[in-house]
């Protein structure tokens, strides 16, 4: 039963029962730890102690006790009871007029109970409704994967802030998608200009995550998406091909994948994993292996003709699995290639974890999950934030995609839910554009039944931006659904491509209808007028507004390019475009550097600079 009324939680608990009484917190109280080893839950108590002071001006002393409260004593009790029945991540939160009691089998359950209580304090201050919450997750592993290879590598401060946000929403796994952005000691020519993560930084981040019950899972692609390595002469001989090869959306130019028949490919992978993995406490590693469409078009062509592309692919992946297993790791791998050979799932070792990914709201998660479950494979569902290739996001598509993944996970027993946030084509979306996707994934994967109808934009505004009036949530939804004015295209928006394709293509392609762009401009102007008047309580309020303003400006420039494409001799339009992109260059750099390292910026900003040098002269 959910009796939330005017209470808002992210994620919404599974069961809430309220009564008419109120709990009025005293100005001074105690947090009492009931555990055989109180030190194990002391950091959790400290988290609550800080929140009581910040949100309710209540000073709380932490102490351990083997006895209950005295009859005349108010207190907040954290009870760790390993003998309690229920889910290992579950908890009970009871608020009465005489006490607040949080009970769980494990420390992580108590951590989640405290997260829920903190959200209650944020809404109610010192006067709390009396209630009882029983809660536990649908899916055991609930993760977020952030792309740090195309092209943003966040600062450590950004990563710490993001982990804090995700942990407060009960996310318990985090991955940094890596191609070339770890500082491997012998491979500086690959990462030299990318401001990579160092080993020391990974160790620090791993410790930070563990304190918040988040597993930092290493993620290093080991097969496809290796262009950043293979473009260098040192590694060129490992490429499957340097020529063109077909992909489902057209043609790509190599190099792209490591050649599975080249012994040096596995030697490189073993070297990389041997250096990378000791920095992580996790016993899991994501080895990638997705979208290897060039395999069979180069060095492995003869082997694929003799044994079959599926067997060549599978043999290589299993050898990587053996490398990881020798280092005490279980592998996750993207399952898209083997989806074309579904019978092979039954041949895979049972310790491998298949990652079923798809990013449209009609992706067949149910069908694919049913097959994986029938094969006996352990698997994750992997939807996405729908933010990349979009500028402003695709809110409704994201919600549909994330919800259907959660439905499949719950129905077919997925062991995990990994919400992916990619950075294709320069990672032009600012980080807050992904927040609604993070929020939806956290809510749906925790308990779909109590969260499926949640107002995700409003909750994002409240808990990511500290927007108590609800205005930012409405703005997020409107801006993130501008894409719906246009014909829906796969995994992207027309505004994004209008900035990345030459003017000659923009003119000829029906993807860019001029009148629709003008209509979108009118909506953007209205959103911008409201944006400047919003008063956020977040300490990052000014930056958040600046990021959303940049998104709107980029979308306006996309519209200007469409107009210029249809009126290329208009000198006034050309001058406007030139001046606008000159201004955008400075703002783009400033917003980028507010959360991210400088490495990758030159590659990301290149399309804007190209407009000046080649199109707006």
TL;DR?
With 617 residues, this protein is an alpha/beta fold.
Features:
617 residues; alpha/beta; 8-stranded parallel beta sheet; 7-stranded mixed beta sheet; 21 helices; globular
Q: What would your notes on this structure say?
A:
With 617 residues, the protein is an alpha/beta fold. The chain is built from 21 helices and 17 strands. It has helices at 42-56, 107-124, 156-168, 188-191, 199-211, 227-230, 263-276, 301-307, 309-326, 365-375, 395-412, 435-446, 448-451, 456-464, 471-480, 494-500, 503-508, 514-531, 541-566, 571-595, 601-615; strands at residues 15-24, 28-34, 59-64, 75-80, 91-95, 99-104, 127-135, 141-147, 173-177, 215-217, 244-247, 250-253, 284-286, 330-334, 353-357, 378-382, 416-421.
Gyration radius (Cα, Å) is: 26 Å
**Class based on secondary structure composition and strand pairing:** alpha/beta
Query: How large is the share of residues in beta strands?
Result: 15-25%
The residue ranges in which pLDDT falls below 50 over 5 or more consecutive positions are none
Multimeric state of these chains?
single chain
Largest sheet: 8 strands, parallel
Q: What is the CA–CA distance across the termini?
A: 65 Å
| Tally of helical runs | 21
How many strand units?
A: 17
Q: Give the averaged pLDDT, no decimals.
A: 96
Overall outline? globular
The amount of helix comes to 40-55%
Across the major sheet, the strand order is 10-9-8-17-16-15-14-13
């Amino acid at each position: 039963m959910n009796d939330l009324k005017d209470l808002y939680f992210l994620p919404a608990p599974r069961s809430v029962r309220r009564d008419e009484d109120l709990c009025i917190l005293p100005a001074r109280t105690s947090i009492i730890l009931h555990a055989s080893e109180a030190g194990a839950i002391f950091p959790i108590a400290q988290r609550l102690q800080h929140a009581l002071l910040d949100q309710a001006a209540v000073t709380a002393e932490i102490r351990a006790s083997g006895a209950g409260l005295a009859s005349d004593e108010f207190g907040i009790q954290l009870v760790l009871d390993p003998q309690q029945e229920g889910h290992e991540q579950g908890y009970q939160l009871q608020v009465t007029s005489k006490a607040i009691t949080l009970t769980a089998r494990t420390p992580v359950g108590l951590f989640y109970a405290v997260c829920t209580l903190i959200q209650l304090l944020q809404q109610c201050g010192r006067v709390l409704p009396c209630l009882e919450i029983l809660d536990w997750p649908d899916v055991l592993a609930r993760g977020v994967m952030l792309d740090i290879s195309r092209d943003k590598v966040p600062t450590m401060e950004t990563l710490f802030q993001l982990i804090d946000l995700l942990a407060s929403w009960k996310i318990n796994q985090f991955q940094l998608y890596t191609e070339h952005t770890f500082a491997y000691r012998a491979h500086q020519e690959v990462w030299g200009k990318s401001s990579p993560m160092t080993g020391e930084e990974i160790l620090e981040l791993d410790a930070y995550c563990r304190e918040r019950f988040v597993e930092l899972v290493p993620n290093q692609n080991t097969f496809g998406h290796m262009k950043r390595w293979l473009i260098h002469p040192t590694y060129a001989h490992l490429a499957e091909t340097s020529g063109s090869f077909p992909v489902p959306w057209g043609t790509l130019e190599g190099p792209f994948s490591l050649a599975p028949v080249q012994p040096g490919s596995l030697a490189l992978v073993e070297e990389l994993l041997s250096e990378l993995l000791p920095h992580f406490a996790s016993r899991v590693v994501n080895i990638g292996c997705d979208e290897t469409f060039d395999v069979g078009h180069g060095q492995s062509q003869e082997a694929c003709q003799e044994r079959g592309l599926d067997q060549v692919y599978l043999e290589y992946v299993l050898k990587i699995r053996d490398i990881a297993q020798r280092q005490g790791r279980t592998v996750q791998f993207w399952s898209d290639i083997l989806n074309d050979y579904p019978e092979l799932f039954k041949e895979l070792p049972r310790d491998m974890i298949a990652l079923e990914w798809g990013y449209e709201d009609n992706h067949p998660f149910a069908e694919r999950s049913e097959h994986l479950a029938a094969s006996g494979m352990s698997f994750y569902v992997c939807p996405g934030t729908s933010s990349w290739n979009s500028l402003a996001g695709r809110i409704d598509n994201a919600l549909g995609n994330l919800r259907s993944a959660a439905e499949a996970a719950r129905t077919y027993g997925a062991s995990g839910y990994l919400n992916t946030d990619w950075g294709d084509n320069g990672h032009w979306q600012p980080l807050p554009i992904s927040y609604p996707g993070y929020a939806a994934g956290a809510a749906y994967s925790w308990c779909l039944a109590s969260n499926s109808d949640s107002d995700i934009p409003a909750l994002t505004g409240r808990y990511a931006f500290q927007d108590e009036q609800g205005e930012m949530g409405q703005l997020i939804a409107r801006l993130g659904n501008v894409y719906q004015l246009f014909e829906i295209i796969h995994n992207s928006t027309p505004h994004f491509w209008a900035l990345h394709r030459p003017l000659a293509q923009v003119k000829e392609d029906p993807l860019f209808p001029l009148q629709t762009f003008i209509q979108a401009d009118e909506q953007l102007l209205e959103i911008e007028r409201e944006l400047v008047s919003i008063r956020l309580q977040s300490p990052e309020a000014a930056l958040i507004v600046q990021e959303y303003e940049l998104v709107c400006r980029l979308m306006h420039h996309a519209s200007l390019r469409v107009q210029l494409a249809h009126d290329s001799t208009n000198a006034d339009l050309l001058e406007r475009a030139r001046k606008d992109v000159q201004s955008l260059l400075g703002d783009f750099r400033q917003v980028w550097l507010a959360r991210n390292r400088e490495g990758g910026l030159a590659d990301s900003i290149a399309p804007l600079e190209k407009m000046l040098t080649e199109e707006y002269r």
